[in-house]
Amino acid sequence: MQGKIEKMPLTQLRRGVEARMDYLKSELIKMAYFKTPDGVQLYELTLTELEQIWENVRTRQAEKRKGVI
């Protein structure tokens, strides 16, 4: 017998995605990142784009602290 997979209500999923996006936007703002190099505002980005930018900025700042850059 296969395991049963529960479906998450879309509203709950949407709230989770929005909460993660809000978190990433606030973290990026704390890191003085306000828009992409081509001028796109943070609120215009998708969750995937925000995740990628957040990871890149975080890595770059860590490298600066270590003196790599």
Structure characterization notes:
There is one protein chain. With 69 residues, this protein is mostly helical. Helix content is 59%, strand content 0%. The chain contains two helices and no strands. It is elongated, with a radius of gyration of 16 Å.
List strands and helices in order, with pairings.
Elements: H1 10-30, H2 47-66
Helix pairs in contact: 1-2
Main beta sheet: none
Classify the helix fraction into a percent range: 55-70%
**Coarse shape:** elongated
Question: Low-confidence runs (pLDDT<50, min 5 residues)?
Answer: none
Number of separate strands: 0
Mean pLDDT: 91
Core attributes:
single chain; 69 residues; mainly alpha; 2 helices; 59% helix; 0% strand
In short:
The protein is mainly alpha-helical and 69 residues long.
